[in-house]
Amino acid sequence: MFIFAPDNFTMESTTTQVATVEQAVELGLRPDEFEMIKGILGRTPNFTETAVYSVMWSEHCSYKNSIFWLKQLPKDGPQMLVKAGEENAGLVDLGDGVGCVFKIESHNHPSALEPYQGAATGVGGINRDIFTMGARPIAQLNSLRFGSIERDRTKWLVKGVVKGIGDYGNSFGIPIVGGEVFFDESYNTNPLVNAFSAGIIDPTKMISATSKGPGNPVFIVGSSTGKDGIAGAAFASKDITEESADDLPSVQVGDPFMEKLLLEATMELAETDAIVGMQDMGAAGITCSSCEMSAAGEVGMDIHLDKVPTRQENMLPYEILLSESQERMLVVVAKGQEQIVKDIFDKWDLHAEEIGVVTDSDRVRYFMDGELVGDIPAESAVLGGGAPVYEREYTEPAYYREYKKFDINSIQQPEDLKEVAFKLLEMPNIASKKWVYEQYDSMVGTKNMVTNKPADAGVVNIKGSNRALAMTVDCNSRYVNADPEVGTMIAVSEAARNIACTGANPSAITNCLNFGNPYNPESFWQFVGAIKGMSAACLKFETPVTGGNVSFYNQTVTDGVEVPVFPTPTIGMIGILEDKSKMMTLDFKHKGDLIFILGRSHDDISSSEYLATYHGVKESPAPYFNLEEEYEMQQVLKELINDGLINAAHDISDGGLFVSLTEMGMPNELGFDIVTDSEVREDAFLFGEGQGRALVTVNEDFEDEFIEKMASSKVNFTLLGHVTKGKMMIDDEHFGFIKEAKDVFDNALAKHLEN
Asked: 386 to each of 35, 40, 317, 409, how far by Cα in Å?
């Protein structure tokens, strides 16, 4: 339950009333951690100081249960300018004096309680991480997970989250260029809302989140501070339960119009010499910004909380410190340049109040009306400093080996595969997400290159350059649950495959690691496996990890038992399209074009939507996957695009070959006539989700060159058939017309949500 200070707790008593271990535990600390704090300070902390450590040492801020494994992820790459952990977000060199700042973060717990504001402030927070570094956001993505779509609560969550993302993003004026939505009963209690943002910057003008220069003034800029979001970081570091509604003060409230003003003021400020360092106030508010900036610069700060503009009267020191009110920044200003900052923020009608000063100590001190109310060593509170680091035990779950016992021969192939095909098209995880993305503004800013040209990844124009930026978010959490290591390798590989299908080269990733309780050894085993799989795939594709976040304590209560959500390591990836005139789309272009499949098909339906939803079989391993084959296929695919030998490319993933073919046909209402592989079961060939495959179309004039190119590679390729005027034919059987399929595909999700 969310804890306010005791009734007899007053501002006058903050330096004399020490905290108790019971209060520390209520605030989310462990008894042994409270003892650690006493050792650091050489005394018992007061309530305010204990509250500071409770948020700074929460999993959300300190990564205390995950940092040991996170450090094992690959972070080096030829295009890296800012590595993971160095700043608010990663920075990658795009060439021509342009850099890309990008990051993904979760806002799961707030969205579970208040979906509209939870999702909206997730969008606001991730965009602030981008422009705090001096980058202008140019595109957004999101990855959403919900429970069973038949449940009324799920429908309420879907509608609230989508509207929150749409309202905030549309008002802020940054296009949403892609994303994903997945439904499974494991998310019934705890949905996942992961937001991604990317921005463009001149790398020489990057703003660091570092404080330096004793005597330099410290400003708080942007919105005023209220009681919304207090202790949100601690709230995000515990399970969702029936009592979580009592934690509603932990849900922030956003204002996209205020954020737009803050963006423009920040961009203007970035062009001056007035900024020494700046950090967004996200999790843990002033507490986090003051401690992290000070620790990074090996300096201290004196902060006067009574100078902070507040929305409510008589806010207690810890409330001001822990508030996560949105649209705020902490700025260290070069002494003598204060008026520049004030004038810029006054122009944009925003607060810019001097609330402190950089000191030559190593301590952050908080004052209220001249009274010292908190005094802590900055380094002791932060990730990589004094925050505790744990190596949790992990145990392989019994289900893992049971899943591997699945045999495709235990599933009888249905007689009517056309019926199966159309049922797949209307399943929530396969059906068009049109109902979702039509609520998002994808065209604002004129940079989106895939508004009317469907592609496997979002592609945005880099003005003044021949290059474009491709981006995607991917994770099939059913695969990860079946096999965390292989499933996460697939997540990275699918992201790279989607980037490659546009013609771009994968560059780097950010991750959002959504898992259950880290104190559950089986949940932590999933986390460790995911880290190992991510490392292997990122090394192969040369896509270093630039940062992201970890969200533990995601679970659903089933019959009184807490069951973790499917482990969901969402991968956000960017890639560079060297020549934007060669951008590849997924749509069939002309009747008569030849359809080829790259990669080998297998008798495999494991963890497919077809097996899990149509047959109701949930226990099976991850689908066929070979990292080397995947890599080789993608390399050839990019060469085909660069050489101009194909005119459409689409990966084969959720729903299998049939769904991919249908998705290629729908944009221009063109069909297909194909022949299946006689060596592979027909249902596996059409609906299996074995990895390392993609579909391409070739104009007959380029057939010989295409075949010559493929024959010289290591990649298997097969002629499936050709594009038709609108009829869908498989092995000479009429599967209907593409218009019929499009009608089912486009309207299914809306029907699910309305019923």
From this structure: 13, 9, 23, 55
Q: Is 722 a catalytic residue?
A: no
The Cα 573–Cα 559 span in angstroms is 38
What sign results for the dihedral spanned by CA atoms 539, 541, 546, 552?
negative
**CATH code for the structural domain at 76-381:** 3.90.650.10
Give Cα separations from 655 to 423, 466, 493, 494, 693 (angstroms). 11, 35, 17, 14, 13
Classified as helix, coil or strand, 733 is strand
Give residue 10's pLDDT.
47
Convert 700-711 into a string of H (helix), E (strand) and C (coil): HHHHHHHHHHHH
- In the chain the first and final C-alpha atoms are separated, in Å, by 35
Catalytic residue selected from 107, 109, 304, 351: 107
Tokens of 265: 């003021």
Give residue 229's identity as a one-letter amino acid code.
G
- Quick one: tokens of 536? 């292997």
Nearest to 328 by CA among 347, 309, 303: 309
Give me the helix-helix angle, 703-711 and 627-642, nearest 10°.
150
> Helix, strand, or coil here: 619?
coil
Cα(23)–Cα(21) distance, rounded to whole angstroms?
A: 5
Mean pLDDT of the chain: 92
Let me know the angle formed at the C-alpha of 507 by 543 and 124, rounded to the nearest 5 degrees.
100
pTM above 0.85, yes or no: yes
d(CA 623, CA 689): 6
- State residue 201 phi and psi, 5-degree precision: -150, 150
Query: Residues 297, 210: contact at Cβ < 8 Å?
Result: yes
Tell me if 184 sits within 8 A of 477, measured CB to CB.
yes
Domain ranges, ordered by start, for the chain: 76-381, 390-433+584-755
Question: Ramachandran region of residue 122, left (φ > 0), alpha (ψ -120 to 50) or beta?
Answer: alpha
Asked if 485 contacts 621 with a C-beta cutoff of 8 angstroms, the reply is no
Q: Cβ distance 401 to 525 under 8 Å?
A: no
Residues 6+ apart with CB under 8 A from 477: 145, 182, 184, 487, 565, 566, 567, 568
Q: Which of 222-236, 332-346, 417-431 has the lowest mean pLDDT?
A: 222-236
Element (H, E) at 268: helix 256-270
Domain 76-381 and domain 390-433+584-755, same fold? Reply is yes
Task: Decide if 107 is catalytic.
Answer: yes
Helix pair angle (115-131, 256-270), 10° resolution: 10
Note whether 37 and 54 are within 8 A (CB): no
Q: Which two tokens stand for residue 658?
A: 């049939």
Q: Which pLDDT value is given to residue 5?
A: 44
Output the six-digit token pair for 590.
């002309």
Q: Which amino acid is at 354?
A: E
Q: Is domain 390-433+584-755 in CATH 3.40.50.300, yes or no?
A: no
